[in-house]
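To close the section, here is one more complete example, presented without commentary so you can practise reading it yourself. The ligand is iron/sulfur cluster.
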Amino acid sequence: MIKEIKVKTALSPSHLPGLGYALNPYRGCSHACVYCYAPSVIHWDKGKWGELVEVKINLPRILSKELRVKKKGVVGLGTVTDPYQPSEKKYEITRRCLELLLLHDFPVCIQTKSSLVLRDIDLLKEFKNVEVGITLTALDDTLGEKMEPGASSVSERLRALFELREIGIKTWVFLGPVMPHITEVEALVDAIAAIKPDYVLVDRLRFKEGVWENVRVFIQEFKPELINEYEKIFRGGGEYYGEIFEKVMSRCEKKGLRCEINSL
Ligand code: SF4
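Output:
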């Protein structure tokens, strides 16, 4: 379900590394990833995550006013929910915000799981300072579809990364969350390295409020043989992420890719 809403503010201060502001055109996200912890971040109390998306219909007008008076800073576009989720195709809120950010010469950092970002290449290439991050969690399209049902397929995301890179836009990959015993980290790093983004940021599964319940249901349905292993990781046991991050770092190094572990 889509609901149009009006907001009073557009930019909010961001505490994420490298960002000055956060800008989120949508509240709710129809990508409906099984591991999503955004509901706990925004205290979502409007039903099952993924079923309702609130479109901030007046956001460009509010942003336009704010950009005239705000101090310059990097704007993280889609810090909580995906700015290129399916509603963007119709509403173009992200696109209109980008037009304004370009006009006022604000640096922008985008993160998405959608190849719809390619629609805005005409704007992106005009920015002096812009970077686009593509999130990848698996190489297998069938599995990707189950974990992130509303997002672009893995192959579409890799193609988007390639096309953005080809026209000279700074690109990066958010490799995360690494799903224990599911994400094929070395094969994924190889596929990413072939495209040569500027860097990779790798992240663990974050068991914030509500996440374990969704992940447990997903594992029980699609990978029941892993349920004990996931329970162990959920309870904090095992050295899974220490080892897996070492594997990612060393594969990236071998492939000449800069890689960092998300420290948040
Ligand atoms: S794209 Fe991000 S915000 Fe949207 S459901 Fe997936 S993890 Fe959550």
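Once you have examined the tokens, check your reading against these statements. The CA atoms of residues 78 and 212 lie 23 Å apart. The longest strand covers residues 130-136.
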